[in-house]
Write a structure and sequence with these properties.
Mean pLDDT: 90
Radius of gyration: 22 Å
Low-confidence stretches: none
Order of helices and strands: HHEEEHEHHEHHHHHHHHHEHHEEEEHH
Helix content: 55-70%
Shape: globular
Number of domains: 2
Number of helices: 18
């Protein structure tokens, strides 16, 4: 009995120590600021990358040619492909699309409720007509809310070949092939169903799987969703991808590109002389964020992406004096050592590097001369 009580007391003590340690670390992380983000970049050139452009001149190149997984930031390219199709009169921005067409690509608990929030926004603003929505609202839902279902639908009507051909036209030399996003989250469940694998076997299979095969299975799942309205709902897939190990592998297999590529893309969008006027108008309408009163910026456009291991940001800004900035910041923290606190602080870092000239100069000074 005494032995049992001694073991129980030890377990309780260990649990208490763990709780105290977690609370301490949480408070410690909450105190971190923009300088801590800068320190992270300085110490982790293999986990982070920055490309910063001012008035068409690169003012900061920090590991900017190192391709990293993009997560939802890749949707910028799909938006550009959409704008091109509208400009070619092959798609109509005001055409009505039944919501049921989007639902067949929707997988719950894979986009942080982005799709549901978009649907609520449509409802609150009376943008749903007889259970249908205009195509331009689907694109805005992909960019502003980051709906993965909308992304899959747009891929289906634009075509992957057209989307990937744009990469060369935009001179995105490091950019890997773009493939369906939501469908890739279902690869683990697909393996379970079709190859009769258990959790450990699925994880090993994914680790050993070549990227080419992963992409092909993702495309196959996308086509199955396209052809069968109930492909996802009829299977009631348990979200196998919620397993951290599987999420890590899937994150690693996501389309990669460099901050150099994405800073230049955002710069082209905001340059007013790269895209034809109609394409530029569509892109600014989709990407622009309304400026706050008395803001020092009259134009801001942004797209970000994240997983448990990834945080990516691409944006353009024009200040009230006409100076144009384009910035891409990517972080890939496979071990999840810093990503949780960085997710909370990166927005402040971005805001300060854009608004505070002295902080900007400090960042440039500390990062420009490091070997990456």
């Amino acid at each position: 009995m005494n032995l049992f009580l001694g073991v129980s007391s030890s377990i309780v003590l260990i649990i208490c120590l763990i709780v105290i340690l977690v609370m301490f670390l949480k408070k410690h992380d909450e105190k971190k600021n923009e300088q801590d983000v800068l320190n992270f970049f300085e110490k982790n050139p293999n986990k982070s990358s920055i490309c910063f452009i001012q008035n068409d001149v690169i003012i900061l190149d920090y590991s900017s040619n190192n391709p990293m997984p993009l997560a939802s930031t890749v949707k910028v390219i799909i938006a550009i492909a959409y704008a091109n199709k509208v400009n070619e009169k092959k798609l109509a921005h005001d055409s009505l699309v039944p919501l049921s067409e989007l639902n067949k690509y929707y997988i719950s608990k894979t986009d942080g409720n982005a799709h549901e929030e978009w649907l609520s926004y449509l409802d609150e603003n009376s943008l749903i007509y007889n259970n249908s929505v205009e195509l331009n609202q689907i694109v805005k839902g992909m960019i502003r809310f980051s709906s993965n279902a909308n992304t899959e639908y747009l891929i289906s009507i634009i075509g992957l070949k057209f989307i990937n051909d744009l990469l060369k036209e935009l001179s995105l030399e490091s950019h890997e092939e773009i493939f369906p996003i939501s469908s890739s989250f279902m690869v683990a469940a697909y393996l379970k169903e079709n190859e009769k694998l258990n959790g450990k076997e699925i994880l090993l299979r994914l680790k050993m799987m070549a990227n080419e095969e992963f992409i092909e299975i993702s495309k196959k799942i996308h086509n199955l969703c396209h052809e069968n309205d109930n492909y996802i709902s009829s299977r009631r897939y348990k979200n196998i991808s919620s397993n951290n190990g599987i999420q890590r592998v899937i994150s690693n297999k996501m389309t990669r590109a460099s901050t150099y590529d994405y800073a230049n893309v955002m710069n082209k969008i905001n340059s007013k002389n790269y895209f034809p006027p109609e394409i530029e108008r569509i892109l600014l309408d989709v990407l622009d964020i309304p400026s706050k009163a008395n803001s020092q910026f009259y134009r801001v456009g942004y797209k970000g992406g994240s997983t448990l291991f990834i945080n990516t940001n691409a944006l353009y800004v024009t200040d009230t004096q006409g100076n144009r900035f384009a910035l891409a910041i990517f972080i890939h923290d496979e071990e999840m050592v810093d990503i949780l606190w960085l997710n909370k602080k990166i927005e402040k870092f971005i805001s300060r590097i854009l608004k505070d000239v002295y902080f900007r100069e400090d960042v440039i000074s500390r990062l420009s001369f490091l070997k990456c």
